[in-house]
């Protein structure tokens, strides 16, 4: 524990000592603790610790002797977060990334304490940095409420960081499950991931609503900028108690949602399905449908044809039938509420929220990757008590690999893309070999399994990653070979 905390603050650009493979680690920690008790022990501890770290670095180097760490030409925007995911974040960097990549990141600490300290300015700064560098990766963060305000002594209940980032980037959230062959979805026909694209703006999330207890008329009124009332519709003549709601959306927001969905589908070479309920909502939902069709005809029809992919619209009821009977492997664009519900449904059918990735894509082409789950608060409290937790790091690993792949693609850095692919494969292979975290225990379809804690799980991934990097060492390291490193 002590040694891990020491490692946490180290620079991102050199190999870090790797606690997992040190058989004598625990005896050393014990020894270190005893030395802590005496004044003179402090000096000796420093000396020993220095030597031990040097020794481990040497070991690390010899393990990696064939591996020139990958250079990044441009940085990623790295947004650190809270609680258990913050701990996992550091472990992933130490164990899976820094030994292989000269990590270049512009670091923003979005942990709740730093947000409070900066009056939340750090969140907007991070979002603006994504606009500058194009790609960001974010750890899960606490969205404060009254309990959290008390727990952390916050100056105020700050807004959701994701909401702030989304409003600056104006993006669409795409959620995709991570699929492994020994975790069967509840829908047996689903073989490929289904990506839910949720229009995260307007509708009931920005509604106004009220209750009426007695008889009366509810009306919908529109007054022009001049004040002149040009539209007036009766919603209902109430005879008794009831509820009323008003909501809206904007052409501009729907259009950028549509563009982002088409671009994402084209990028990932997947069909795009869009659903709404325009038979019932003949103006509101019909507007969504029309704008999607318009964007498709004007900008994407030819490109979709060339890529061999399809776009089609259908009523949400019909699309639910089609999705359930499909093999998966499409992007399903949903209105705000539909996307909220359907992404939870898809996550549950595929297994677990801990196996769901999320990427925010802006219409200008900025990308922000993260896990779909939160900070796993309950596990963190156990961690604070000194317990080893078996928290699943898959979605956070895939947030990193997604960001690294995108960075690689934008910079023409195929080594980086290749590494991220291999890290994903090593992670999937680990689960497929039956090495899992506790949350997957109930869901696994094969009898052979070994439930491990988070650190051990990352160590198992690392073993497989090293094997896969060794296996193609010649291809990666051939000087002057086909790999162009910029
Ligand atoms: P959560 O962190 O997603 O966790 C809910 C439960 O799901 C956990 O207690 C755990 O169940 C299980 N779980 C989630 N991720 C897991 C993983 N990686 N490995 C194993 N089990 C996992 O949701 P929450 O506890 O409701 O929220 C905690 C904090 O996260 C809140 O402050 C919330 O504001 C924040 N949050 C942030 C984001 C974000 O930044 N994107 C998203 C959602 C929530 P068991 O305890 O049964 O093992
Ligand atoms: Mg939901």
Which features characterize this protein?
486 residues; alpha/beta; Isopropylmalate Dehydrogenase; 4 domains; two-stranded parallel ribbon; 17 helices; disordered N terminus; binds NADP nicotinamide-adenine-dinucleotide phosphate; binds magnesium ion
What can be said about this structure in brief?
With 486 residues, the protein is an alpha/beta fold.
Note down, in words, how this protein is organized.
The chain is of the alpha/beta class. The protein has 4 domains: 1-63, no CATH class; 71-183 and 351-486, Isopropylmalate Dehydrogenase, CATH 3.40.718.10; 187-204 and 251-335, no CATH class; 208-246, no CATH class. 47% of the residues lie in helices and 18% in strands. The chain contains 17 helices and 18 strands. The protein has helices at 2-8, 25-36, 39-63, 83-97, 112-117, 121-133, 146-152, 161-169, 251-268, 284-307, 316-325, 336-350, 377-384, 394-411, 414-432, 454-471, 473-477, and strands spanning 70-71, 76-80, 101-102, 105-109, 135-138, 172-177, 194-198, 208-212, 216-223, 229-238, 242-246, 271-276, 311-315, 330-334, 356-361, 367-371, 435-436, 450-451. Strands 4-2-5-16-15-6-7-14-12-13 form a 10-stranded mixed beta sheet, sandwiched between helices. Strand 12, helix 10 (284-307) and strand 13 form a beta-alpha-beta unit. Helix 2 (25-36) packs antiparallel against helix 3 and helix 9 packs parallel to helix 10 (284-307). The chain is globular, with a radius of gyration of 25 Å. The model is unreliable at 1-51, 53-62 and 473-486 (pLDDT under 50). The structure holds NADP nicotinamide-adenine-dinucleotide phosphate and magnesium ion. Magnesium ion binds next to helix 12. The site of magnesium ion has 2 residues, from helix 12.
């Amino acid at each position: 524990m002590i040694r891990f905390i020491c490692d946490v603050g180290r620079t991102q650009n050199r190999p870090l000592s790797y606690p997992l493979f040190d058989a004598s680690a625990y005896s050393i920690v014990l020894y270190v603790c005893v030395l802590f008790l005496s004044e003179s022990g402090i000096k000796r501890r420093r000396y020993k610790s220095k030597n031990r770290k040097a020794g481990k670095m040497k070991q690390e180097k010899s393990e990696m002797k064939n591996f020139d760490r990958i250079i990044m030409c441009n940085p990623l925007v790295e947004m650190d977060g809270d609680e258990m995911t913050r701990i996992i974040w550091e472990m992933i960097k130490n164990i899976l990334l820094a030994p292989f990549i000269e990590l270049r990141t512009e670091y923003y600490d979005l942990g709740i304490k730093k947000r409070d300290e900066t009056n939340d300015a750090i969140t907007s700064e991070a979002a603006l940095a994504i606009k500058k560098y194009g790609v960001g990766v974010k750890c899960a963060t606490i969205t404060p409420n009254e309990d959290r305000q008390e727990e952390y002594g916050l100056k105020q209940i700050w807004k959701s960081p994701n909401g702030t980032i989304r409003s600056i980037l104006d993006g669409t959230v795409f959620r995709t499950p991570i699929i492994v062959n020994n975790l069967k979805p509840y829908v047996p026909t689903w073989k490929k991931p289904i990506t839910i694209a949720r229009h995260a703006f307007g509708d009931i999330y920005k509604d106004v609503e009220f209750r009426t207890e007695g008889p009366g008329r509810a009306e919908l009124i529109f007054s022009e900028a001049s004040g002149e009332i040009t539209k007036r519709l009766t919603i209902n003549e109430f005879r008794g108690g009831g509820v009323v709601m008003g909501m809206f959306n904007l052409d501009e927001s729907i259009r950028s949602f549509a563009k982002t969905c088409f671009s994402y589908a084209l990028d990932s070479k997947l069909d795009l399905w869009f659903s709404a309920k325009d038979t019932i909502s003949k103006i509101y939902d019909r507007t969504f449908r029309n704008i999607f069709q318009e964007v498709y005809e004007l900008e994407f029809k030819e490109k979709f044809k060339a890529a061999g992919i399809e776009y089609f619209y259908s009523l949400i009821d019909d699309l639910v039938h089609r999705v359930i009977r499909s093999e998966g492997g499409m992007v399903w664009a949903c209105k705000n509420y539909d996307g909220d519900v359907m992404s939870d449904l898809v996550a549950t059918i595929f297994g677990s929220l801990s196996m769901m990735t999320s990427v925010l894509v802006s219409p200008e082409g900025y990308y922000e990757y993260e896990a779909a789950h939160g900070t796993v608060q309950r596990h963190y409290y156990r961690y604070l008590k000194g317990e080893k937790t078996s928290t699943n790091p898959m979605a956070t690993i895939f947030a990193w690999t997604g960001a690294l792949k995108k960075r690689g693609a934008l910079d023409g850095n195929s080594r980086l893309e290749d590494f991220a692919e291999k890290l994903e494969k090593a992670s999937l292979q680990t689960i497929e070999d039956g090495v899992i975290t506790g949350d997957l225990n109930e869901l696994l379809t094969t009898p052979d399994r070994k439930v491990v804690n988070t650190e051990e799980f990352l160590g198992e991934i690392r073993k497989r990653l090293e094997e896969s990097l060794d296996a193609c060492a010649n291809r990666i390291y051939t000087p002057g070979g086909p790999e162009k490193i910029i």
